[in-house]
């Protein structure tokens, strides 16, 4: 038996022992909780009148529940580790020592007993940095007590499955390319995988960065941005357990399918899952008092595909110019919106001039539509002091109505519409609240206007915001995010994957919004696609600075068909999904209508259950064949991709869409155009 197998067996034995002990202690813990409940029910009527004993009991119960929960958490981690307790090892000789020490690295720390030297170190532990950052030779790591220097004598990589050693080999260079190639060459999972075994040096630098408040990652398609961002979260949680809980992290993700796709990484890394939200859904919720309905982003994209002339309007309304005009309008409103009058109630009187002073001097800092309420509160106080009594409910309402009547209107829909008119744009339709529907291009301008007029609630619980697909957010949206989340941020995306005709590089304007101190990192190396696919896609987008990971596959197939049925035939012919082939395949179209039609045709051919049609309301990414649009496939990956287009004239937006589709493919890419011209193919 080799050393490593012996060590593996030792770790497995100790893991099993600890699991048995944890089980016992969990049973005792559960009994303890039960006893506490029983004691409480039997005795609570006799507990002292001030509730001290009652309080003590509740605290004890809470502590016990916490302990039980922590133990459960540990047990889950150890059970997971039984499958593969470690994946790497570094033999490190500290300066001044004669013998090297072996550090085994796995998804979590494991020691025989709490407090003892770990048998396995968490991949996020300081010493594990050696594994990712250095080759054999001189090396160092930053320990809590300071920098530790020494020499890496050897480095090992292991594959262990079901508790059995599949392979073990010594690698003297960086995380070995062969292992990475094997990982990348495997079939795509239905969910994004964790990459702890093969994190690359430049990725590790981002994951372990704790010093920058705002980190912006511009990364090529497939460079591992999403993976790195999630591992970074796991790293930050591990290193700042006291101040940072998973509930303090919020990830802004494009849609439900994407959230599902990334949802298991953190639990797999031993962390709880984090809150996730689509900024659009948040905005729609926040605007419920302005309009009951808002157009969906994806509906706008569809509209833009069919009516190219309308495309510019969206960007016009999100531009810094438009925002400046709105700021000018807000200044004007300060005066034009107000109709400040004397206020009297019984013998009490407060002159307009006094209200004006309060409004424009004392409470000037408060946003305009919240400000009069502050004045009202002040006056109510004044009245109550003079009258020597509190106002009753009816009187409170009277005060409120009178002060609110000093605004000419408080309807943000009306105000926004007037603003549009004032700058020569078409106003919003004049309809009752129930009939209002905001177009997507107006959603964020209205939200911005709202937050400038009414104090937004700060999301204080959020200490770290992750923004994925950063190129899809406009300057206006970043302004709003900066107002709502004055916290640390990890922002990631790819300027080449904008869902619009022109690419957007947010790095041009982000420092102006979030401050100059943001740190930007560029990741040019693509890991997802084969060289053939990556080169093909880069050419589509005019990218020249892409670094490729050397993994080869089939050449990209381009074909033109006269009829969609012919394309369906070819897709069916080339599909190689389970049981004997790939895990996932996608047929990607430009519009939802096309996706629906192709899904129908494929279902007729291959059977209803073997094809999943995915639209904007879907929330799951499933194994097998998925038919959907390019904009919903963003961020996802598939073993095989068939891109089908041709109904719309080939313009800049369609080229962007084709690029997004092409970069989704791991192993095989087929680009099928349905010809709409004369020539028959
Ligand atoms: N170090 C790594 N080891 C193994 N696999 C990796 C590594 N880095 C990236 N990958 C793989 O590359 C693929 C792309 O990763 P990911 O989805 O995180 O990239 P991305 O930059 O967010 O892509 P996109 O912007 O195109 O959606 C995934 O399959 C991921 O597992």
Automatic annotation (TrEMBL):
| One matching Pfam family | UvrD-helicase
The source's superkingdom equals: Bacteria
Whether Nucleotide-binding counts among this entry's keywords is yes
Quote the InterPro entries the UniProt record gives.
Answer: DNA_helicase_UvrD/REP (IPR000212), P-loop_NTPase (IPR027417), UvrD-like_ATP-bd (IPR014016)
One cellular component term from this protein's GO annotations in UniProt = cytosol
- UniProt-annotated binding residues for ATP: 219-226
The molecule here is called AAA family ATPase
Q: Where is the UvrD-like helicase ATP-binding domain?
A: 198-530
Q: Which GO terms describe its biological process?
A: recombinational repair
Instruction: Write out the transmembrane intervals.
Output: none
Which SUPFAM superfamilies does the entry link to? P-loop containing nucleoside triphosphate hydrolases
Q: Which GO terms describe its molecular function?
A: 3'-5' DNA helicase activity; ATP binding; DNA binding; hydrolase activity
Organism of derivation: Blautia faecicola
Keyword ATP-binding tagged: yes
Name the UniProt key words of this record, in alphabetical order. ATP-binding, Helicase, Hydrolase, Nucleotide-binding
């Amino acid at each position: 038996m080799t050393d490593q197998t012996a060590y593996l067996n030792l770790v497995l034995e100790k893991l099993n022992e600890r699991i048995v002990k944890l089980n016992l202690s969990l049973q005792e813990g559960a009994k303890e909780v039960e006893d506490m409940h029983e004691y409480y029910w039997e005795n609570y009527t006799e507990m002292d009148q001030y509730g001290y004993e009652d309080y003590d009991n509740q605290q004890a119960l809470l502590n016990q529940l916490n302990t039980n929960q922590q133990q459960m958490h540990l047990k889950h981690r150890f059970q997971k580790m039984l499958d593969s307790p470690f994946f790497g090892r570094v033999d490190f000789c500290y300066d001044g020592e004669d013998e090297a020490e072996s550090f085994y690295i796995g998804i979590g720390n494991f020691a025989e007993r709490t407090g003892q030297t770990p048998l396995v170190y968490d991949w996020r532990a300081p010493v594990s940095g050696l594994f990712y950052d250095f080759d054999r030779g001189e090396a160092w790591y930053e320990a809590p007590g300071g920098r530790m220097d020494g020499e890496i004598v050897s480095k090992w990589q292991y594959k262990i499955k079901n508790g059995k050693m599949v392979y073990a080999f010594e690698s003297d260079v960086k995380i070995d390319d062969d292992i990475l190639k094997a990982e990348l060459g495997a079939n795509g999972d239905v969910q994004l995988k964790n990459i702890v075994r093969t994190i690359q040096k430049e990725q590790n630098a981002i994951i372990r960065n704790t010093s920058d408040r705002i980190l912006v990652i511009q990364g090529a398609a497939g460079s591992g941005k999403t993976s790195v961002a999630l591992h970074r979260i796991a790293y930050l949680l591990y290193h700042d357990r006291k101040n940072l809980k998973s509930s303090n992290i919020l990830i802004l993700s494009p849609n439900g399918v994407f959230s599902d796709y990334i949802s298991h990484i953190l639990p797999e890394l031993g962390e709880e899952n984090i809150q996730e939200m689509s900024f659009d859904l948040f905005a729609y919720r926040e605007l419920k008092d302005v309009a009951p309905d808002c157009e969906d982003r994806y509906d706008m994209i569809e509209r833009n595909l069919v009516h190219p002339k309308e495309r510019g309007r969206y960007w016009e309304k999100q531009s810094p110019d438009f925002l400046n005009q709105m700021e000018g309008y807000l200044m004007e409103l300060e005066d034009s919106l107000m109709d400040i009058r004397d206020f009297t109630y019984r013998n009490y009187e407060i002159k307009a001039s006094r209200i004006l002073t309060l409004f424009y001097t004392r409470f000037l800092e408060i946003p305009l539509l919240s400000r009069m309420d502050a004045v009202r509160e002040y006056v109510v106080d004044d009245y109550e002091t003079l009258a020597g009594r509190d106002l009753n409910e009816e009187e409170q309402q009277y005060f409120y109505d009178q002060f609110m009547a000093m605004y000419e209107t408080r309807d943000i829909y009306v105000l926004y519409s007037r603003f549009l008119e004032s700058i020569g744009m078409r106003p919003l339709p004049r309809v009752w609240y129930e009939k209002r529907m905001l177009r997507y291009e107006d959603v964020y301008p209205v939200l911005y206007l709202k937050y400038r007029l009414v104090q937004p609630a700060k999301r204080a619980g959020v200490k770290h915001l992750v923004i994925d697909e950063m190129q899809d957010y406009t300057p206006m949206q970043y302004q709003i995010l900066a107002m709502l989340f004055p916290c640390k941020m990890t922002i990631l995306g790819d300027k080449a994957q904008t869902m619009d005709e022109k690419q957007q590089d947010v790095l041009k304007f982000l420092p102006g919004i979030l401050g100059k101190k943001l740190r930007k990192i560029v990741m040019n190396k693509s890991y997802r696609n084969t060289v053939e696919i990556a080169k093909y896609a880069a050419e589509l987008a005019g990218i020249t600075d892409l670094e490729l990971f050397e993994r080869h596959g089939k050449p990209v197939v381009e074909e033109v068909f006269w009829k969609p049925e012919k394309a369906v035939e070819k897709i069916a012919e080339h599909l190689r999904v389970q049981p004997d082939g790939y895990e996932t395949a996608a047929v990607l179209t430009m519009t939802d209508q096309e996706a629906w039609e192709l899904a129908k045709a494929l279902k007729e051919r291959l059977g209803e259950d073997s094809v999943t049609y995915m639209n904007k309301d879907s929330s799951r990414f499933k194994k097998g064949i998925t038919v959907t649009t390019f904009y919903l496939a963003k961020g996802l990956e598939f073993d095989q991709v068939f891109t089908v287009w041709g109904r719309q004239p080939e313009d800049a937006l369609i080229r962007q869409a084709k690029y997004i589709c092409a970069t989704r493919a791991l192993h095989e890419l087929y680009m099928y155009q349905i010809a709409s011209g004369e020539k028959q193919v």
